[in-house]
Amino acid sequence: GESVGLHLPTLSVQEGDNSIINCAYSNSASDYFIWYKQESGKGPQFIIDIRSNMDKRQGQRVTVLLNKTVKHLSLQIAATQPGDSAVYFCAETPGSGNTGKLIFGQGTTLQVKP
Amino acid sequence: EAQVTQNPRYLITVTGKKLTVTCSQNMNHEYMSWYRQDPGLGLRQIYYSMNVEVTDKGDVPEGYKVSRKEKRNFPLILESPSPNQTSLYFCASSPRQGVSTEAFFGQGTRLTVV
After folding, report:
1. Which of B85, B90, B50, B59 is nearest to A3 (CA)?
2. Which of B12, B22, B101, B113 has its C-alpha lying 20 to 30 A from A19's C-alpha?
3. A residues 6-65 near B, CB within 8 Å?
């Protein structure tokens, strides 16, 4: 069946270090892969997405890498800051094109130590 | 201010008493969607709508109804709530036509069914 999962429920990093959050997915036909950030008491916030025909996409301080061979997605955050502390979710749009469906992983909690 | 607004933010109700959670967006987005968030299960899609009068089931539609009579509103209806529908609910909308990825989420509605 379809599933999106994250390797670690919690990741703790030192302020200023780079963070890497990983995600494994199972649906080879998914067209988009997305990362969301959810701060305590708030709704998820879109960070960055990547289409299946790409293997890397960069945003401001963030980079998403997609390895379709091993069905692996990662989010790299450069120079992690206290404000990056949150739960991070990966998600995918199953099927080709964008059908409107969105499947989320369970989330990784990023803790930034001062 | 561009936003997705859900009401109410908190609700405690009794089993079987019909309720509606409203969702409104002021960004003229065509795509809207509802999710529930439960500990250990992440976010799961309930229903989504690609446009006015177009709705489709997500992964967990049982016990829920939606309608999309106008672009800005996408209410979630629980005809006969049960305790297993106790959850944190999020509404989201997306700016690109028919694309679910870059979604803006509301602040959430915490529902308790006793």
Report:
1. B59
2. B101
3. 32, 34, 42-46, 49
pLDDT digits over B22-64, tens only? 999 999 999 999 999 998 888 999 999 988 999 999 999 999 9
Task: Kindly report the nearest CA distance between residue A48 and chain B, in angstroms.
Answer: 8
Both tokens assigned to B110? 């915490």
- Enclosing H/E stretch for A8: none
User: What is the rounded distance in angstroms from the CA atom of residue B74 to the CA atom of residue B52?
Assistant: 9
DSSP, res B15: T
Answer for the pair A75, A47: CB distance below 8 angstroms, yes or no: yes
Tokens of A56: 């890397």
Q: Which of B42, B49, B99 lies nearest to residue A106, judging by beta carbons?
A: B42
